[in-house]
Amino acid sequence: MDNAERLRLFCERFMQEMKSLLRKDHTVDLDRLLVELNEAVKQKDPLSQWKGVVMYPGFEPETAKYSYDNFTPRVGDVLVASYPKTGTTWTAEIVRHLIHLNDKDMQQKSRKFNLVFNYLEFGPISKYAAVEAVDLDRRCFGTHLPSDLVNLKKFKKIIYVIRNPKDQLVSWYNFAVPQPYTLLPQDPKEFYDLHIEGKQGVFSKPGEGYLEHVREWYRHKDDENVMFLAYEDLKQNPLKHIKEIAEFIEVKVTEGQISEIAENTSFNSLKKASKGNAVESVQMFRKGQIGDWKNHLTVAQSEAIDRKVEEILGDTDIKFTYEI
User: Fold this and answer.
1) Structural domain contains residue 139
2) Which helix (H) or strand (E) holds 160?
3) pLDDT digits (tens, 9 = 90+) for 186-221
4) Which residue in 153, 202, 285, 321 is deepest, having the highest Cβ count within 10 Å?
5) Residues designated catalytic
């Protein structure tokens, strides 16, 4: 199967799942939307940019701008912001379980509000007609945009997720290389070295990458509507941090419900639940471990990342957890 066919099937699978979420009286032109979605996910050469920030294929500058200027979230909507492969999908799943806590049917149904539609900057602008027609009382959105490109005042609840940059890098390699694009080196050493040097960043300006993304969002960590969450903290103590997420997004939850959500959103549960769904086609779940980087990065690469962390985040109180 060639890349064009893979992308076509990707779009069709996500569109098919999304249909069941739309109100019966919707007027969304789904045929036109599918055509425009297929066009959006094609590889651009060079990659598109918005305000100097490089966008990965499918993540559209025009859609990001539309989101900033024109999209208005509903009361109760939650935004999960992050750099790729830092725990975005996991955190969003926890939020989804929480906001539909007392409606199991809606909790199951909301699973289909997928990355094509819930990422602010993904796909064509026309997808927002479908977003507005979604029959959900509260929605969980995602974004990989730097903080300056998100209209932060619009969202009352924003969770920004961070992960140690060594595991993020390994996870990004294993996610990005199998995708139907020819953007990045296949050789892991070349991939890692270029990433560390800031020469292949996306969702950042040329020469920058994940750590600069964290630095920019860090400026908002004490904003009333922003919660900072570390992947490793959530991994080591899910009950504590699911409770904190619930309090932040104003969901009343019992200890028993927290335990149930922790079980239903564990890595193994999410990986199993993705089988046969559109999400499985983009390989969101691999290992989810803390410290797997030691099996992939050289000592020199690890030390180079340490120097970068000190250079870019040394004046913050961020302390990454690299192993347990």
Assistant:
1) yes
2) strand 158-162
3) 999 999 998 898 887 799 999 899 999 999 999 999
4) 202
5) 144
